[in-house]
Amino acid sequence: MKRLFPLLILCVFALGALSGCASKSDIVKLPRPSGKIAVAGFTNPVFNWELLAGYLPHEGKPIKKDILQELDAKMVGVLSKHGVTAFARPAITRQCQEIEVFENLGGRREAAFAYWVKVGQCMSADYILVPQILFWQDLRGMQKADFNIQPASVIIDLYLIDVNNRRIIRRFHYDETQQPLTENMLEAGTFFKRGGKWVTAMQLADEALETGLMELGL
Q1: Which residue from 37, 74, 155, 156 could staple onto 174, CB 3.0 to 4.6 Å apart?
Q2: Which domain of life is it from (predicted)?
Q3: Rounded to whole angstroms, how far apart are CA atoms 160 and 131?
Q4: How does pLDDT run across 75-84, given as a tens digit for each residue?
Q5: Contact (Cβ atoms closer than 8 angstroms) between residue 187 and residue 197
Q6: How far is Cα 183 from Cα 167, in angstroms, rounded to an integer?
Q7: In this structure, what are the phi and psi dihedrals at residue 91, rounded to the nearest 5 degrees?
């Protein structure tokens, strides 16, 4: 029995690795939207009514501004890598984000959606990509140690809004907290893909943007 245990572990690792590869190849690439696209700067809703969907794990916890700026730059980099070039960058779209304001339109969530449509209209865009970060917890502790660790955890939503028809046409939701391999053998493929070590919240955000933009057709 003792001799079989290592073999069993290797089988689990192999299955995890295969499942990781399958998840990457199964990503659905939707047709790229035709028209002018405005990319909003990352926002960090601190209250549920600021969201377009879902709920915050913790209200009232803002994220540092420099993190949002770094995410904006990463968004532009991934879009460019994917061959998306004709879009208004977050630095420009932020001007309209600062001009437009939330209005009392009845339900607060309806007001949040109306706000982003107005930002898209301000940009004269056919579509607006709205990235929101709902939770951010960075890694604390040694990256290669399995004790005294606060793992990185990230929740990001990406919305593609049809401005002219006033509707959300695509959404990508990313909710990831890294776990030790000993706690989740089925994630062995992802564990080894990350170099077999603990990763930072920004590295999780890289995964979210790479996968999310592909799923949105961008």
Answers
A1: 156
A2: Bacteria
A3: 9
A4: 999 999 999 9
A5: no
A6: 40
A7: -60, -35
Please report, as a single letter, which amino acid is at residue 63: I
pLDDT for the residue numbered 192: 52
Return the structure tokens found at 38: 């405005």
Nearest in space to 158 (alpha carbons), one of 216, 114, 117: 216
Residues of the chain scoring pLDDT < 50: 1-26, 143, 145, 181, 184-186, 188
Could you tell me how many residues make up the chain? 218
What CATH number corresponds to the domain at position 177? 3.40.50.10610
Residue the block writes with tokens 């290797």: 10
Structure tokens at 13: 């690792």
Domains held by the chain: number: 1
Domain that holds residue 169: 4-215
Torsion of CA 101, 105, 109, 112, to 10 degrees: -20
Measured CA to CA, the distance from residue 30 to residue 159 in angstroms comes to 14
Residue type, 200: T
pLDDT tens digits for range 174-202: 999 876 545 544 454 555 565 557 789 99
